[in-house]
Amino acid sequence: MQRSHFHHEPKSKFAYAVDSHSIDLLVLVQKDTCKKIELLHGDPFMWTYNDELNTYTWNGELQGSSPLLLQSTFRDQEGWYIRLSVPTKRLRYAFLVDDVYLVGPNSIIDLTQKKQAKYDFSYYYNFPYILCVDTFHAPSWVKDTLWYSIFPDRFCNVDNMGTNILPWGSSTSVKNNQFFGGNLKGITSKLDYLSSLGFNGIYLTPIFESPSAHKYDTINYFKIDPMFGTTDDLKTLVKQAHKRGIKVVLDAVFNHCSVHHPFFQDVIKNGKDSPYYSCFYIKKHPFTELSQEELSRVHYPKQANHSLSYETFSFSPRMPKINTEDPFMRAHLLDCATYWIKECDIDGWRLDVSNEVSHDFWRAFRKEVKAIKEDCFILGENWDDATPWLQGDQHDGVMNYTFLHPIHELFEQSRTKDISTMIDTFHEILFLTPKGVIPQFFNFVDSHDTIRISTLLNSNHALLKSLYMFLYSLPGSPSVYYGGEIALEGQKDPDNRRCMHWQLQDSEQDFYKFMKNLGRMYHQEAVFRSIDFRFLERSSLMLVYQKDHTIFYINLSEFDQSISIPFQQGTIKNLFTDEFLPSSTAIIPAFSFLILQHQSL
Length: 601
Prior knowledge:
- The chain contains 12 helices and 31 strands.
- With 601 residues, the protein is α+β, with helices and mostly antiparallel strands.
């Protein structure tokens, strides 16, 4: 057996404490390498005096031998797993493969050649001690939350007659310098509407003072943008949402701010003499003042601007990057984070560009907000593997972009599908994500940063319904981008930020009714919220996956498909229609889905 065929890392996503007396251990093994893996384990201080040898010998391995479960297979690897009870909180462990090979941190030993190695804990991995403070904890309410993401300026306008506001929906090609007057009062007026669809969590893109429609270039972190309303309007929104059992999460943009932020304007004016000079990453001395054209620019530059005197988000002159290690700026941002919790009782923060801000800052952020509100949800925006941010000391969850891209590839009809690769991606993500993190996945199929999913699927509403059913049944918490419930369309940013339709056409009414039923099922049927998940087939025509005692079928083709029902005994129920199936076969129409649940006699 070769070392390269076996992968395990102590104190990592391969070995982590679940609670005060339990540890999850994972192993990746190359396919067809072994048939059996056992865990040899014991307390490192379990020593016994041997009279014959007149010395102490370790007998920790005698405390237990526990089999690992082959839990997942993807690409050329097998994922083996065990959850182990550790009464003493200390653990030495090694893996026994096929009763022959002892696998530890530095070697693979053939026990037929070196039997005594089994009794030498220097060949074993070490988990020194389980400390509860190091375990992952997230707010319990998140795992049962159905999210709704709102771009405030385009959702609903109530009593907003400010200047430069365009008639609602008057533009078919929206831009970031156009304002339609959506506001906090408008969101409050639609809380009953959101509740009727099953949404019990709302996430708002930034609402603080800013010159743009998207508000990701903040001028004042302690002031609601006047176009959106006032602090009292936010208080009312949160209070009314809480009455309906709806949580409210705001967007924290702490990686960068607006070029018009007073701190940055002081740096422009006073250079090194500014007390805020170290709040930003200034590259050139003396500081080069921006032109009026650069200051007023709304869109990203058409080409990278390397001549700027300061670091920015992307290459945008209007978004200088913030130095969160500067003591004054750090205190300023942390005050913002706690202020809105104390002032308006918000339930969480979504952290913009969280992977470009230091881990040290997010650790401080977590301590501050959790001290004010222990069940405050901290949600990071991270487009890649977020494991370093999900160790229990920073974020509670992340926007799950690792699911988004394979979902698009699975459902986009114009794309040639590598179905096996997509399925392997899902299996790998689910296997290598700590079990306690999975319920906090913030799953979505589109957002203010992506193409609208209806547009991506060419307005194929049958397929779109199947996709949303898939989203709602994935492990984690699903999120719908505003208008998704009526199949609102739009290309990439900024066209994906069109005004919400409130006078619905027949097709929109039909889709709305479907989403309302799906929301009801999400809360009513526990299987939708279960993190148990595995694909059963790798067909390019049909997605088939199982959760608990329920099998989900999605017909990805333009033709009807016939299936054989796999359950042999008991009653078979179509979970979505609440009907019982009388035969052993079923027809799934083109682009549609079927949910079969086995109910014992």
